[in-house]
Amino acid sequence: MKFRVLLSLAFVVYESAAYPFGSHYPLPEGQVSQTFTDNFNPVKNFGGNGPYSDGRGFGISRDPPEGCSVDQVIMLHRHGERYPDVGVYQTIEKAINKLTAFEANNTLEGDLDFFSEWDFWIHNSALIAQETTTGPYAGLLDGYSQGTEYAARYKNLWDGKTKVPMFSSGYQRIIETARKFGEGFFGRNYSEIVDMNIIPEDAAQGANSLTPSCHALKTSNVCGNLTHIMPEFSVAAERLNKQNPGLTLNSTDVYALMITAAYELNANPYSPWIDVFTREEWISFGYTQDLIYYYCDGPGDAASVAAGSLYANATLTLMNQGPEKAGKLYFSFCHDVNITPVLAAIGLFTPKEDLPVDRLPFTYDYHSGDFVPMGGHLVFERMTCNQTANNEKGVYVRAVVNEAVIPFEECSSGPGFSCSLSNYTTYLNSKLKDFNAVCKTPSSYPQELTFFWNYNDTNQYDYQNGPVSYQLGLTNE
Ligand SMILES: *[C@@H]1O[C@H](CO)[C@@H](O)[C@H](O)[C@H]1NC(C)=O
Ligand SMILES: *[C@@H]1O[C@H](CO)[C@@H](O)[C@H](O)[C@H]1NC(C)=O
Ligand SMILES: *[C@@H]1O[C@H](CO)[C@@H](O)[C@H](O)[C@H]1NC(C)=O
Ligand SMILES: *[C@@H]1O[C@H](CO)[C@@H](O)[C@H](O)[C@H]1NC(C)=O
Ligand SMILES: *[C@@H]1O[C@H](CO)[C@@H](O)[C@H](O)[C@H]1NC(C)=O
Ligand SMILES: *[C@@H]1O[C@H](CO)[C@@H](O)[C@H](O)[C@H]1NC(C)=O
Ligand SMILES: *[C@@H]1O[C@H](CO)[C@@H](O)[C@H](O)[C@H]1NC(C)=O
Ligand SMILES: *[C@@H]1O[C@H](CO)[C@@H](O)[C@H](O)[C@H]1NC(C)=O
């Protein structure tokens, strides 16, 4: 809209200038776009609830820096877009029921005028917590297309015949995402090539887990008390109630209806709920999600940093062993709350100060929509690089979060702002926390992450073989 207005203004100015440059032709389109819509896109304010979108980084090229080639790729991937879990489903249902009851004797007006035509998209309770399979943002589609993209990007790392282990935690939607990714990456030979290893989510896995359970309390007492705090939610409720006298929505309902928007989009091309709320309300919603990740499963919780240290440490070993000894491809699949601890452990997106809970700080570095949307993934690229004017020939590491290259703030003087593997090793060793000590892993449980080195050489789990039971681990008892 704004763009069109600007264009027509430009046209008027141009017309009235009587062709000062002696040309009848419209001005050529410039090389660069001047449109950023002030950095607003609703999908960036859904936290972990909505469809995948690429991360926003620093403009660093996704391709390897000049003189470097990737020789090992280690990915940790969240499941794709899905239906809500039962708890969120009930929250949504409660708010929707309030509107349905109101509409029994009234017609909803204003921003909610679509409601009588709207279709509650979850028609079958068996879909709850499962991957979505419909629409442009379908979860299984996301897993598959991510696989095909990476097959093209990393084609030099697989010869078309070497067997490759993959790793998924034992939760149905996660296993399904891993399989779709594998089918996308390995194509027709997926079933012969891949040895799918399913690592149970049970607490008894101890440290040998993609979803490690912490047997210590959360350090922050803020966690669990963060959802309805933004004053904008009450403003939204008031607006909708004013448009519909007698309606009694409150901030809890508004929060639930905003979640509805994100989840509906996981299964449908369009959600009218997105337009019910203003940009400012969406920005507030996004911040509540950042707070939850930060204090419950991120840098604001010491137990989470310790849990993330497990994967960070194991992958450091893989990179130091290198592709000849350890293999070139490590694709692992888990939940969002298993990725945010790893980001915290390696020091990516770690604000200098704890996020304030009483106000939105605006200039802060913890935007969960950039790192754990559905289908979010953290990739380590190990690179061998030739000598440059600034760097020695050698082995370097960089992190890619949802296709955005994110440098390590304390180690970025390598090619393309990467970090030398030896400096990364020093850097990480100074940061890693002792998982077993912090999380009080019972001594009868495994004390080390070993599955990367003693995986099973079998393809029996490559395809669905009966439903996988939910294995909710015990986290922060
Ligand atoms: C590194 O240098 C060698 C020798 O000049 C060259 O063959 C190779 O292609 C270079 N590697 C990259 C990734 O540019
Ligand atoms: C609708 O109006 C009828 C008749 O006044 C009343 O009995 C009923 O309780 C109302 N329903 C709701 C949901 O308010
Ligand atoms: C699958 O693997 C077999 C055995 O290695 C090979 O002969 C065949 O060409 C592969 N098929 C595809 C489509 O890559
Ligand atoms: C390998 O298989 C054994 C026996 O089925 C099982 O106990 C173990 O957990 C599996 N390991 C992995 C990494 O999947
Ligand atoms: C949650 O917030 C309320 C109101 O600010 C406060 O009274 C309560 O102590 C908080 N609970 C926790 C667990 O922090
Ligand atoms: C909003 O209303 C629901 C009942 O419809 C209630 O359960 C909830 O506690 C209310 N939230 C607030 C913040 O008052
Ligand atoms: C590695 O660390 C050394 C010592 O701190 C520093 O001089 C060098 O620039 C670092 N190299 C890279 C690639 O970060
Ligand atoms: C990292 O892993 C190595 C074994 O590979 C282990 O010796 C070391 O204690 C681990 N570090 C931490 C902080 O867990």
Automatic annotation (TrEMBL):
Pfam families, A to Z: His_Phos_2 (PF00328)
Disulphide bond pairs: C68-C385, C411-C419
Superkingdom assignment: Eukaryota
Coiled coil regions, renumbered to chain: none
Keywords: Disulfide bond, Glycoprotein, Hydrolase, Signal
GO cellular component annotations of the record: fungal-type cell wall
Signal peptide: 1-18
Similarity-based family: Belongs to the histidine acid phosphatase family.
Protein name (Swiss-Prot/TrEMBL): DEBR0S4_13806g1_1
